[in-house]
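Database export, one record per block. Field names are fixed; values are copied verbatim from the stored entry.
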Amino acid sequence: MLTDFLYPGETIIFQSRKIESLNDSFFFFITDQRILLYRRRGVLFKKDRVISERIENISTMKYGEMGILRKKGILCIETYSKKMEPIVGKVPDIKAIWKEMQKYIRKDPPAC
């Protein structure tokens, strides 16, 4: 269960529909501190998979689309130390993530 992976007092702000990354399906969550890619599998024996990155570490995000008939949205997130694997999904779902993330990405003031 996702709540097992949240910090004390951490709250979920946004949840997406299923997206694809790292050859797997996840739900994308934005909390007040991090982004989380989460999935749970198994009927009898549950297996969780979580990918987490602190929002303050995100330096850039790039959104794009690919395909002609069945367009897919692609979101590339980079931190100050690494490039995350692209997040792929239906255009409205990926756009919603991108729009929501814009509220939380730190914007450095312009240099004088």
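Remark 1: The longest helix spans residues 91-102.
Remark 2: DSSP finds one helix and seven strands in the chain.
End of record.
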